[in-house]
């Protein structure tokens, strides 16, 4: 895209410069003025026409005419895809584009792209293909996919189909077959609490489209209504997993009844969080920690009933709610490891176990089965001396392995996994939520001059530099019941993140603010204080 834009500026400057500083406006019927003043305007309308056509995914028209005006005049106007005039918002963009200086063209084009919510991925994808071809490489263009689908396809390709068919359809077939098998196994039971109704917020990303395709394979075992499916709203804007997790409220546009399970994906569908409104209409979050404990508890039970000698562990980050860690270690008696933020750290650590469950609190996670675990399950399944009870459990474990996308966190696969477990337990979201009660928590962002002045240790739970910050945090935290707080530089945004937990939401907010202020003071805060 950058290359394009640079070319647009270069050609503009060279062949169609804006010489006069006269403001010209898209009026009643396009731009209309002396022909000699229109050259750069018409060039720029060529640019706008392409943007409009991409936005509409249709042909649009550009008319050059002075209509009823004198001969020395001329004009240009755009015709929208259904044959009518362009809407007012486009007239505004046209006016901006016509009047910016030659060097401001890039910024103006970018802002139209973003205002009209236009996807530039096609151009970026072309750039990628150019890079591959120039090196003599070959590529398969799978078009639009979720991130975890591509992870799946890479493994399938490199295992010659051993992990599944290397096609998007193969992905749906593999997951849905496992899901149907696991549900059918218990088809005869009557379910009291588990309902098949589920609301899904697609974050206006790729997940909604992919979910629609998956649903065709699920034999109506799930009754899913999709919100934020990308037909109108903006990507991740007041919706999606991150918004719901951090804001702890329903996404934009989602209408739900109490007690019905809801889930939000993120834009590329590698994260998922669940939530519901309880009988008092209060929002209840079932985040990555709640998913991790649900999955770990279930698999732990399955493994112990299978009689197989397999160790199971759970990997979290410092963002995991303190109650979840306590529940896992004390109730489930599953060992927990804490690693720095970022899936690469969690995934790596999870490989230390026969069965490694990992989840970030924000809903990114999966389960890894080691080669040894896969081999033991496979051998047990083939064994002839199993009682029918044991066989059923081993088959279940083996089908679970097929249901889980082990390559990376996957909103679709994780959703099916959660649904199977809830169905098996015959749980509604309230029963799931009851396992443990989250400590109130708060995340804040603090802007500083250079976030790298903050370095951390102990899986990011303690600050090393700047000097004095950790002892200041310790002092503040000691004033709060069940208080815990840590700070770290974000790896994806130019901010320092503050996390806090305490006994009440009010105290948690106070704690987060006090720690945020210390960061601001001791680590070079800029702009508004937290
Ligand atoms: C608190 C939080 O949710 N941090 C996120 C966020 O990283 P930061 O380094 O905190 O900006 O984006 C990462 C990539 O998606 C994700 O792995 C991580 O969990
Ligand atoms: Mg993602």
From TrEMBL:
Pathway(s) where this gene product acts: Nucleotide-sugar biosynthesis; UDP-N-acetyl-alpha-D-glucosamine biosynthesis; N-acetyl-alpha-D-glucosamine 1-phosphate from alpha-D-glucosamine 6-phosphate (route I): step 2/2
A single MF term (Gene Ontology): magnesium ion binding
Residues in Phosphoacetylglucosamine mutase AMG1 domain copies: 167-273, 287-427
Keywords, ordered alphabetically: Acetylation, Carbohydrate metabolism, Isomerase, Magnesium, Metal-binding, Phosphoprotein
Signal peptide: none
Organism domain of life: Eukaryota
Binding site for Mg(2+): 67, 266, 268, 270
GO BP terms: carbohydrate metabolic process; UDP-N-acetylglucosamine biosynthetic process
PROSITE patterns: PGM_PMM
Function statement: Catalyzes the conversion of GlcNAc-6-P into GlcNAc-1-P during the synthesis of uridine diphosphate/UDP-GlcNAc, a sugar nucleotide critical to multiple glycosylation pathways including protein N- and O-glycosylation.
Family that this chain belongs to: Belongs to the phosphohexose mutase family.
PANTHER family cross-referenced by the UniProt entry: PHOSPHOACETYLGLUCOSAMINE MUTASE (PTHR45955:SF1)
Name the UniProt record assigns to this protein: Phosphoacetylglucosamine mutase
Organism: Lottia gigantea
Lineage of source species: Eukaryota, Metazoa, Spiralia, Lophotrochozoa, Mollusca
């Amino acid at each position: 895209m950058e290359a394009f834009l640079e070319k647009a500026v270069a050609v503009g400057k060279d062949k169609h410069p804006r010489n006069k500083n006269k403001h010209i406006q898209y009026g009643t019927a396009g731009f209309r003025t002396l022909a000699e003043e229109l050259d750069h305007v018409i060039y720029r309308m060529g640019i706008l026409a392409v943007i409009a056509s991409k936005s509409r995914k249709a042909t649009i028209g550009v008319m050059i005419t002075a209509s009823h005006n004198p001969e020395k005049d001329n004009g240009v106007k755009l015709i929208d895809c259904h044959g009518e005039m362009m809407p007012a918002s486009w007239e505004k963009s046209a006016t901006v584009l016509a009047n910016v200086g030659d060097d401001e063209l890039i910024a103006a084009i970018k802002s139209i792209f973003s205002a009209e919510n236009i996807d530039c991925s096609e151009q970026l994808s072309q750039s990628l293909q150019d890079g591959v071809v120039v090196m003599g490489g070959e590529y398969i263009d799978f078009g639009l996919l979720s991130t975890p689908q591509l992870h799946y396809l890479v493994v399938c390709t490199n295992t010659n189909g051993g992990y599944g068919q290397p096609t998007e359809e193969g992905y749906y077939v593999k997951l849905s077959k496992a899901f149907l098998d696991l549900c059918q196994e218990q088809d005869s039971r009557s379910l009291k609490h588990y309902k098949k109704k589920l609301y899904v917020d697609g974050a206006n990303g790729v997940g909604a489209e992919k979910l629609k395709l998956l649903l065709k394979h699920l034999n109506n075992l799930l009754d899913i209504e999709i919100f934020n499916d990308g037909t109108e709203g903006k990507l991740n804007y007041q919706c999606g997993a991150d918004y719901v997790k951090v804001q702890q409220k329903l996404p934009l546009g989602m209408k739900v009844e109490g007690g019905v399970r809801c889930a939000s994906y993120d834009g590329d569908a590698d994260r998922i969080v669940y939530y519901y409104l309880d009988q008092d209409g209060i929002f209840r979050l079932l985040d990555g920690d709640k998913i991790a404990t649900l999955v770990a508890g279930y698999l732990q039970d399955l493994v112990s009933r299978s009689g197989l000698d397999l160790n199971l562990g759970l990997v979290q980050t410092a963002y995991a709610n303190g109650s979840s860690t306590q529940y896992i270690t004390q109730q489930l008696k599953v060992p927990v490891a804490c690693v720095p933020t970022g899936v690469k750290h969690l995934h790596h650590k999870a490989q230390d176990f026969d069965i490694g469950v990992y989840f970030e609190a924000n809903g990114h996670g999966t389960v890894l089965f080691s080669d040894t675990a896969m081999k033991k399950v496979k051998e047990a399944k083939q064994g002839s001396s199993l009682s029918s009870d044991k066989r059923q459990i081993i088959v279940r474990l083996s089908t679970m392995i097929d249901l889980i996308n082990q390559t990376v966190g996957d909103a679709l696969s994780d959703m099916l996994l959660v649904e199977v477990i809830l169905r098996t337990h015959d749980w509604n979201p309230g029963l799931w939520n009851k396992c443990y009660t989250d400590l109130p928590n708060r995340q804040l962002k603090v802007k500083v001059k250079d976030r790298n002045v903050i370095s951390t240790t102990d899986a990011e739970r303690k600050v090393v530099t700047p000097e004095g910050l950790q002892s200041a945090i310790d002092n503040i935290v000691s004033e709060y019941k069940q208080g815990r707080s840590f700070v770290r530089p974000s790896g994806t945004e130019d901010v320092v993140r503050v996390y806090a937990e305490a006994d009440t939401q009010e105290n948690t907010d106070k704690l987060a603010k006090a720690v945020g202020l210390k960061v601001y003071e001791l680590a070079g805060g800029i702009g508004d204080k937290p």
